[in-house]
Specification:
This protein is an alpha+beta fold. Helices cover 28% and strands 17% of the residues. The protein has a domain at 25-92. The chain is built from four helices and three strands.
């Protein structure tokens, strides 16, 4: 039985959750952040946070991992073009533990 959870993605689910245009082709990817550090798992935490908010994302530029174990110059984070503004809002206004409205 397939898990129907829509707010979280498992590794490898990106193509399934990436939006498509009217022609059925995958939507254009838009650069959200350039050179995000992989040290301390920052890029992976960001991908997880975006995925938890329903925004599929991926990182590119991990060539340095072969030699150093992490991308020394950082990685670029991409999201679907139609979700770019929402992703920027999430980054600009992250929820803080204990905040009340």
């Amino acid at each position: 039985m397939k898990d129907e959870t829509s707010w979280g993605f498992r590794r490898g689910d990106l193509p399934e959750h990436w939006p498509t245009g009217p022609d059925g082709q995958p939507e254009q990817a838009a650069l959200l952040i350039a050179a995000q550090s992989e040290l301390g798992g920052g890029a992976d935490v960001l991908l997880s946070m975006l995925g938890g908010c329903g925004i599929p994302a991926f990182k590119s530029g991990t060539l340095g991992k072969v030699i150093f174990g992490f991308a020394g110059r950082g990685v670029d984070i991409y999201v679907p073009q139609s979700m770019l503004e929402d992703a920027k809002l999430i980054l600009d206004h992250p929820a803080r533990l204990g905040d009340e409205e």
